Fold:
Amino acid sequence: MTIANQQITVPQLTQTEVINRSFVVSPEGLSELAQLPSPERAEVPDGTVVFSQTSAYAVRVFTQTGQPRINLFNKTTGRQELNAAPATAITSTEGIVFNYAGFAPDGIPAVRVSVASNGAQTFEVNGTVQTNSASITGTVSYLPRIAMPPNAILEVTLVDVSRAGAPAITLASQGIIFGGRQVPIPFELMYDPDQIDPRFSYAVQARILVEGQLRFITTTRFPVITQGHPTEVEIRVDPVSR
Structure:
């Protein structure tokens, strides 16, 4: 991988070298996670770098054979508008931007995904920012004195927990790569306030995965937004028995 004028070039790799690479943001810019082994030696994680969604779209940035790619799902139409579209990545001290130019004559959308150095994520579709107008902020931590590897992923989710005995309904979610950081990890979870009913109950859930394996998860409810609950929370996750 080379960086010239803040433009990141990721060479195509042969299957015998490595089939997946991921990137992390630090104050120094973009750095590459440890290379993953070939499929003959181990199962390879999916390489997700960013996952974010609003009431209108869900976007995923991932790496495939060393190339950043973007998936875009339109929740309004139920259509997968981009599937593994090749993206460019531009880094700076403020974070990293993944970009896919699209092709307007064929109705293929342009997508721009930004990840700030503090983990905050926003994305644009055809030049329109898709962030919602409200957010929940906080940190996620755990008690055991265990260091997470750089490719550990924190997933934070806002859910509707109003219906007793029924599965929680996901309203918003965010994925953050540790990238060498350790807990507490800050997050900013954007959500659509139009989806909030003051009569209902909402909570934030979190979990930490390493190479697809669940390592920590919330076992306590952390209520937010309605019924006098805050929009800033300190979340603790507990280890999963292995």
